[in-house]
Amino acid sequence: MTKGFVLKILGITVVAGGLVFANELVNAKTQPVTVAPQSAPAAQPATIETPVPAPVAPHRQAAAAPLARRPMRPRAARGAEAANGEINFVSVCRYSHSNQDDPIVYPKAPGATHHHDFFANTTTNADSTLQSLRAGGSTCKIAGDTAGYWAPSLYVDGKVVQPTLARIYYRPGRKDNTTVRPFPAGLKVLAKGDNVVATWSCVGRDQERTRPQSSPPTCPQGTHLVEHIRFPDCWDGKHLDTPDHTSNMAFASGRSCPASHPVPVPAIQLNIHYPTQGGGTVALGFPDKPVAAHADFFNAWDQTTLDRLVRECINAGVHCGANPPGANV
Known about the structure:
The protein is mainly beta. The chain contains two helices and 20 strands. It has one domain. Strands 4, 5, 6, 9, 10, 11, 13, 17, 19 and 20 form a ten-stranded mixed beta sheet that branches. It has a five-stranded antiparallel beta sheet with strand order 2-1-18-7-8, with no helix packed on it. Strands 15-14-16 form a three-stranded antiparallel beta sheet, with no helix packed on it.
């Protein structure tokens, strides 16, 4: 699918198809590099919330970037007084399952691709449709989030590392928050190539984190590895999918969307938490045929819930966080 990479973090040796990206932490139960975009905007700063499970045995400890303590955010932020990064709602979803399916790129072709980890919808497979996903269960705190999110599996020294959860941030991005519209039902988004920003960081307790970086670091004791994937946030207004699965979406520039993709939609950031400190040889997709960092989103939200959250959180300029009012959390 994509150019691959293998990083030897300790070396530090890098053979990569590339990477880039940004943000955050957890608060849920346990369960379960990238092509640098030529025109994508810079990643937004990461935020931390609550502790996560202790990491598994560390893989050869190496020097890591110093941890920075970040102050707690206020529970709410109003309109123009809040930076766009502080206006959000967050869907916290436990790991669901893994397989080699991809209902966007390889529909109705089970086992046709590299290994993926799935979050939110519990039924996502090669045969998934909007109707089947809407009828499926969810691992998310927000009951209405029955969307499908998936990304290549992580391998450290040839062994797969099952993620614990993903925190999916819905923000206005670098756009006027009052103009953002909900994703249309059935929209398929592949964040890949020029349509993705990806980074890595180490996250721990007491609001500690390392700075986001382009390659997976070896994390200090008491922290774990997090992958940050940011999706494009402007839709062409016509196509729920396209033959290349990417050209229906683009990144905003400045405060607005380009004329080719005029519909402003939420800027999604998928933060995947892994119970490992990294180190050793890190690869995505397959240990012997690694791919660049990317992720997929299939919008199968309960549309009424999604519409309301966009209206009452993003459009209203309110920081709703992981417990938005009335979201059946």
